[in-house]
Design a protein that fits this description.
The structure is a homodimer. By secondary structure, chain A is an alpha+beta fold. Chain A folds into two domains: 74 residues, Glutaredoxin, CATH 3.40.30; 108 residues, Glutathione S-transferase Yfyf (Class Pi), Chain A, domain 2. Chain A is 55% helix and 6% strand. In chain A, 42% of the residues are buried. At the A-B interface, strand 4, helix 3, helix 4 and helix 5 of A face strand 4, helix 3, helix 4 and helix 5 of B.
């Protein structure tokens, strides 16, 4: 299989942690693509031009990161990352949705700088995104999501979101959220692939 | 259960079609929320302040629309909307991801008008989003996704995306995509809930 992604992508980082945890490193070849310029191979695999995209042996493509992680979870060994049924499944996937939402707001804030001239940036839009981020961080700070034996897909997604905000937002999320800072420390101790996939490392 | 959504939301429309197809209308109460102004009940259910959000009898919340649709698919009667395993599952979910991606680009184009003064809108950003939409439409036009007995979750998501572009983009997607126009006609004949959930109808 081929994973089209970029070292800086938080969605790609979720998938790379999943590959490591599930013991699939030998079966997935990483292919770096530049979504800023656009990449013909990526656009052929996913017409949205979005990463990550997983190309299977038979040529089929799977996206987005949620679907890829679920697919890989059925393939590899190691702990189950998405419970197969019951309330735990919906709790895990809803936490994943919260982490993905955090990433999406944080990305749009980065895009505000990347794709607009400086005098065309709108503070009220960035503040609107930040309000969503702040509410979500406060919610997580109030009840940092615990795990039993091993972090699951929901935890991976939240960690990828916080890691992205360390990378692109200078770690400003850490202020006022000591419980979540401690949570990320516990997570990185439990999932060595987190530090191994730090952007720029 | 309570579904927090808005009549105009394409993600909410996916869920409302799912509720109808799965025979769950009597078990889900629709609650209209205004995400533009912000809604305290919504923010309490989903700190991202995003719709749709499904509040269960026990007070737990499930989001996003993908997760809600999968949850409802395990509850109701009627056709299976997300195959439980195998290649069909990944094909359905990847088509759903394509439809969600179309919706997300189309929404960002609408937000460009809604959340920015007219002189702060950036044409190159809107064009970047449109290129993703156009590639995806051309891909779907080249191979409109067929169904066996009944449309599945992937088809519902693409239909919600096209319906949103009818509603907010004056149906411009129809030009140059006659195969997809015919596809949406077949879909709306197979899924009466599609026309029943037309925004503004």
């Amino acid at each position: 299989m081929k994973l089209l992604s970029s070292p800086a992508s938080p969605f790609g980082r979720k998938v790379r942690m999943t590959i490591a945890i599930k013991g699939l490193s030998d079966r997935v070849e990483a292919v770096a693509v530049d979504t800023g310029k656009g990449d013909p191979a990526l656009n052929a695999a996913n017409p949205l031009g979005r990463i990550p995209a997983l190309i299977l042996e038979n040529g089929d493509t799977i996206h987005d990161s949620h679907v890829i992680c679920e697919y890989l979870d059925t393939l590899g060994s190691g702990p189950i990352l998405i419970p197969r049924s019951g309330p735990e499944r919906w709790r895990t996937l809803t936490l994943g949705s919260l982490g993905d939402g955090l990433i999406e707001q944080a990305l749009l804030q980065v895009y505000e700088g990347r794709y607009r001239p400086e005098n065309m940036r709108v503070d009220s839009w960035v503040a609107r995104l930040q309000a969503k981020i702040d509410r979500s961080l406060d919610y997580l700070e109030g009840a940092p999501p615990a795990w039993h034996d091993h972090p699951d897909y929901g935890h991976l997604t939240v960690a990828a979101a916080l890691g992205y905000m360390d990378f692109r937002h200078a770690g400003r999320w850490r202020t006022g959220h000591p419980g979540l800072v401690a949570w990320l420390d516990r997570f990185s101790a439990a999932v060595p692939a987190f530090n191994a996939t730090t952007p720029g490392a």
